[in-house]
């Protein structure tokens, strides 16, 4: 039986010149998750990660907390959906542009753009069909070859996509799940590569004593 742990990256640098970089909070979140896992002797047979900087930095901080981990296997199927390109396409259709400084407005627009993408109304930098296939391939590879935990560092939208597929929910559910996934949370899956089940979603027990470190963006 496969045991896949989907780990969302730590807090990135929202509003900074380089968003795709962990904040100090994000580094601490990932390191504390590693320490929490090591204290329970939960260690990965493999680590997998997307190509984004915030994902790679999360894997590094996680490995530091674990006291060491396998070299991550890189698969672009763990990357986040390209929300910025989707929002640009959404605006090009005559919808109002969000003020990125206003998080609520920005994320409301992002969800609208994501749902239009799921319906095939916009493509952004990658069609939803191509994205869906790449995400499914990443998950298949994660679930093959071992009955020990496989840690996969990904992002909220892609974790939402994987979970909604396992649950058999419509594509639009991925956008709703995305908004719930906390930084450095883990979601556990188990089963066979062709038939995984959801064991838990969006857990952050490593932050129970540090609630000020719980973030969503």
Automatic annotation (TrEMBL):
Any one GO molecular function term: hydrolase activity
The keyword Ribosomal protein appears for this protein: no
Source taxon at top rank: Bacteria
InterPro entries named in the record: His_Pase_superF_clade-1 (IPR013078), His_PPase_superfam (IPR029033), Mito_Ser/Thr_phosphatase (IPR051021)
Keywords: Hydrolase
Pfam families named among the record's database cross-references: His_Phos_1 (PF00300)
This protein's record includes keyword Membrane: no
PANTHER family cross-referenced by the UniProt entry: PHOSPHOGLYCERATE MUTASE-RELATED, SERINE_THREONINE-PROTEIN PHOSPHATASE PGAM5, MITOCHONDRIAL
Official protein name in the record: Broad specificity phosphatase PhoE
Species annotation: Albimonas pacifica
């Amino acid at each position: 039986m496969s045991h896949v742990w989907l780990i969302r990256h730590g807090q990135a640098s929202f509003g900074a010149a380089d968003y795709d970089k962990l904040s100090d909070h994000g580094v601490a979140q990932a390191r504390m998750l590693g320490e929490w896992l090591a204290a329970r002797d939960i260690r990965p047979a493999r680590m997998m990660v997307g190509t984004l900087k915030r994902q790679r930095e999360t894997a590094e901080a996680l490995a530091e907390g674990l006291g060491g981990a396998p070299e991550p296997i890189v698969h672009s199927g763990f990357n986040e959906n390209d929300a910025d390109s989707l929002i640009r396409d959404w605006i090009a259709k005559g919808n109002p542009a969000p003020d990125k400084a206003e998080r609520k407005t920005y994320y409301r627009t992002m969800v609208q753009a994501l749902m239009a993408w799921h319906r095939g109304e916009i493509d952004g930098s990658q069609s939803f069909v191509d994205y869906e296939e790449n995400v499914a391939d990443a998950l298949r590879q994660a679930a093959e070859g071992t009955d020990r935990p496989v840690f996969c560092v990904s992002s909220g939208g892609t974790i939402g996509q994987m979970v909604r597929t396992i649950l058999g929910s419509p594509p639009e559910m991925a956008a709703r799940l995305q908004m719930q996934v906390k930084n450095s949370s883990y979601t556990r899956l188990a089963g066979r590569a062709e038939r995984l089940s959801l064991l838990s979603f969006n857990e952050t027990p490593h932050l129970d004593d540090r609630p000020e470190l719980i973030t969503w963006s």
